[in-house]
Amino acid sequence: MCGCGQQCWGWGNCAASPMLLLSLLLSTAPFALRGEDTRQVSLEVIPGWPDTPQNLLHVRAVGTNSTLHYVWGTLGPPAVVLVATNTPHSTLSVNWSHLLSPEPDGGLMVLPKDSIQFSSALIFTRLLEFDSTNVSDTAAKAPGKPYPPYSLAKFSWNNITDSLDPTTLTATFQGHPMNDATRAFVNGSLAFRVQAFSRSSRPAQSPRLLHTADTCQLEVTLVGASPRGNRSLFGLEVATLGRGPDCPLVQEQHSIDDEYAPAVFQLDQLLWGSLPTGFVQWRPVAYSQQQRGRESALPGHASPLHPTLAYSLPQSPIVRAFFGPQNNFCAFNVTFGTSTGPGYWDQHYLSWSMLVGVGSPPADALSPLVLGIMAVALGAPGLILLGGGLFLLLRHKRPLEYESIN
Ligand SMILES: *[C@@H]1O[C@H](CO)[C@@H](O)[C@H](O)[C@H]1NC(C)=O
Ligand SMILES: *[C@@H]1O[C@H](CO)[C@@H](O)[C@H](O)[C@H]1NC(C)=O
Ligand SMILES: *[C@@H]1O[C@H](CO)[C@@H](O)[C@H](O)[C@H]1NC(C)=O
Ligand SMILES: *[C@@H]1O[C@H](CO)[C@@H](O)[C@H](O)[C@H]1NC(C)=O
Ligand SMILES: *[C@@H]1O[C@H](CO)[C@@H](O)[C@H](O)[C@H]1NC(C)=O
Ligand SMILES: *[C@@H]1O[C@H](CO)[C@@H](O)[C@H](O)[C@H]1NC(C)=O
Ligand SMILES: *[C@@H]1O[C@H](CO)[C@@H](O)[C@H](O)[C@H]1NC(C)=O
User: Fold this and answer.
1) C-alpha–C-alpha distance, residues 89 and 315, integer Å
2) Is there an atom of ligand 6 within 6 Å of 147 CB?
3) Domains detected in the chain
4) pLDDT in tens, 180-191
5) Which of 62, 124, 256, 340 has the most neighbouring CB atoms within 10 Å?
6) What are 335-373's pLDDT values in tens digits?
């Protein structure tokens, strides 16, 4: 009769129907519970050779029937190789002499090979800087005139052993250009803070990405480096492996809920294949202060992911060691801020977070606050109707009683 089955799927159509809206809300609830899954997570610095800095971090996350391996390294540009296996017993094997050789193919392996269900990689190739002085706000998509980018393959990185914290499951790679001719990084550094999780939760700090035991969070922070202009915008170039001729899919998801990241209603994600495979997820926002809020939020903009010739990108030995020679790279740029908003120039601070994971990306349920507001919004008309009904009922009743008395 009402044809609801076909017409009510649009949000707009359904807003008028409390029952349908309620059932939609209830159907989102299982997502919030889904992360009960836990893993035994360990972080290990793979011992290197005596005079090479130890810069290979192995995150091993063991579940009942599977093991995830995240190998983060700054041999070459910062990169992560992620591998999912269908056994709780798979191991990582590293042959340093092989890995450090000009042909590292096979220097990094996950064994047994036939347990591998999924593998891919992310490479953080360049730190970008743009001069936004002449960019009007209307053309905000173009960050401005690019300065020569900093190749992250030409950075030197700290010994991560000192930063490894087994209780919080974190480790930080901190680096600066090897050859800092302009002395921009005399007091500055670029840090990649990696965090693993043994269960599903949400950090206290914005953008409060929902994580699961299947994910790692990466926080990239630029601190104290001297910008080359008064209105410098920064960004990162990120590369990944393509699948055949195609690039992974990038999706934008919109929500009416910004409780976890004020004024950000979007979640971007990169999917390596049809679900469940692997994903990268981030909110298009960076922060220009350690105190994260609306005032320090810089809008992020990601360029489309497109095929990129391998030779035009700084190469990662660890990616080559695991995957062998590859030609199908895809890359995108993510840039932060506008010439008029808050910016890196305020405090010489910029921080951006993302999640990388295996399986289906965590999906945000509506936050309790928004659910409360909706309940009140839906409840108020209901109360008014109920009140009105009672009033009519009573009004009809009185004359009757009056008559009967007469
Ligand atoms: C890194 O730090 C650890 C602990 O401080 C030390 O044992 C190790 O030798 C260091 N490695 C290098 C290459 O300096
Ligand atoms: C693990 O595998 C067994 C047998 O294949 C299956 O019965 C069980 O449900 C799996 N457990 C999980 C947590 O996936
Ligand atoms: C490591 O690789 C080298 C050659 O790259 C090889 O000679 C050596 O046997 C390998 N070591 C192990 C333990 O496999
Ligand atoms: C900005 O634009 C003005 C006028 O078009 C030009 O003279 C100036 O060189 C530009 N500055 C930069 C940094 O591009
Ligand atoms: C680096 O810090 C020192 C001490 O705080 C300061 O004197 C110097 O000017 C700074 N250099 C740059 C390039 O910011
Ligand atoms: C930066 O701003 C100062 C003061 O407003 C100005 O003197 C200087 O020329 C500007 N520098 C650049 C590179 O635009
Ligand atoms: C990222 O931006 C830089 C500077 O504008 C540019 O050279 C590079 O090609 C861009 N990379 C991608 C993948 O768009």
Assistant:
1) 31
2) no
3) 32-358 (2.70.98)
4) 999 999 999 999
5) 124
6) 999 888 899 999 999 999 999 999 888 887 766 666 666
